[in-house]
Amino acid sequence: MVQEFSRRELLVPGAVAAAGLVLGVSLSAEGAEKAKTEKSKTKKDKGKAKAEANRCVVVWSEGTAPKEIYPNDINGAIVEGLKDLKGWDVVKANLSDPDQGLPEALLNRADVLIWWGHKKHDEVKDELVGKIVKRVKENGMGFIALHSSHFAKPNKKLMGTACTWKAYVTDSTTLKVTVKSPEHPIAKGVKEFTIQHGERYSDPYAVPTPKAVVFEGVATLKDGKTDPSQVGLAWEIGKGKVFYFQAGHETNPVFFDVNIRKIMSNAVQWAAPK
Ligand code: ZN
Q1: How much distance in Å is there from the Cα of 72 to the middle of ligand 1?
Q2: Which backbone phi and psi does 252 adopt, to 5 degrees?
Q3: pLDDT of the residue at 51
Q4: In the chain, where does DSSP find H-type helix?
Q5: Domain range 54-160+233-271, CATH class
Q6: How far apart are CA 172 and CA 175, in angstroms?
Q7: Which residue, 27, 66, 89, 116, is the most exposed by fewest CB within 10 angstroms?
Q8: Cα(61) to centroid of ligand 1, in Å?
Q9: Ligand 1 centroid, distance to 200 Cα (angstroms)
Q10: Quick one: pLDDT at residue 139?
Q11: How far is the CA of 101 from the centre of ligand 1 (A)?
């Protein structure tokens, strides 16, 4: 669910709220009013326990997607797609937020971090990258890298390889996504589907051998030719689970697609530490 926290619930990750980092969590007028009038200690404790029991996924992006496709940026569309996740707090984080969207209290609370970046990879501080990688390897935080985030600093550091694709070409029209590992939790309930997608990445992808290739795909080019490639790859790195998904070019409304949203939801639940 995308929570409308009461003010008290927001105070649970105290430092986060104190730093004014409500991020994408919407504090509704109703919620604020409720918080104001909420006096019972029992209620307060119940709210606190509930927020602490919830798992937490942080959806981060750099804020460069075109507004006409993504009015609330790519992470806004992903957050919306995760609103039905029960027992989860879904938090939107942006590069432009204080601490680049990931203050320590939030990073330490996150069970899963979803990442979309493209033009501003270099702006992400190495110190933050180190903390993210540590959270994954040592504490089991899940990490999900999307599309051009193959070159995101945390993704490269986790993979330990160049993370290059053979080619990146904006000459395609569609991407047909096929399920390669139907038994994998990320593929649950997902059947073959096709999306509009104007940019293809060509194999090989310079990463360690994944534990599973969950999805493959075939891009159809404007001239009718086709280009097959890996689309969804899963690893276990240290104590953490990592998933990379190739689709997600910013000029296509990929993250509003019902199939993609299913995959995002499945991936969050799979990547969370048990
Ligand atoms: Zn792209």
Answers
A1: 18
A2: -115, 140
A3: 57
A4: 7-10, 14-18, 29-37, 41-53, 73-81, 104-109, 126-139, 153-159, 258-271
A5: alpha beta
A6: 8
A7: 66
A8: 14
A9: 8
A10: 98
A11: 22
pLDDT in tens, 34-79: 444 444 455 555 555 655 689 999 999 999 999 999 999 999 999 9
- From ligand 1's centre to the CA of 74, what distance in Å? 12
Global pTM? 0.84
Q: What is the pLDDT of residue 245?
A: 98
Per-residue pLDDT, 129: 98
| pLDDT for the residue 236 | 98
* Residues in the chain where the model's pLDDT stays below 70: 1-52
* 250 Cα–ligand 1 center, Å: 6
Query: How does strand 55-61 pair with strand 112-116?
Result: parallel
3-state helix, strand, coil in the chain (%, to 5): 35, 25, 35
- Nearest residue to 260 (alpha-carbon basis) of 245, 272, 270: 245
Measured in Å, residue 44 CA sits from the centre of ligand 1 at: 45
CA of 117 to the centre of ligand 1 (A): 9
Instruction: Determine the Cα–Cα distance for residues 170 and 210; give it in Å rounded to an integer.
Output: 26
Q: Report CA(129)–ligand 1 centroid distance (Å).
A: 22
What phi and psi values does residue 178 have, to the nearest 5 degrees? Answer: -115, 150
Cα 162 to ligand 1 centre (Å): 18
* Cβ 267 vs Cβ 88: under 8 Å: no
Distance 201 CA to ligand 1 centre (A): 9
Torsion angle defined by CA atoms of residues 156, 160, 162 and 165, in that order, rounded to the nearest 10 degrees = -70
Ligand 1: distance of its center to the CA of 94 in Å? 18
CA of 199 to the centre of ligand 1 (A): 6
Q: What is the pLDDT of residue 101?
A: 98
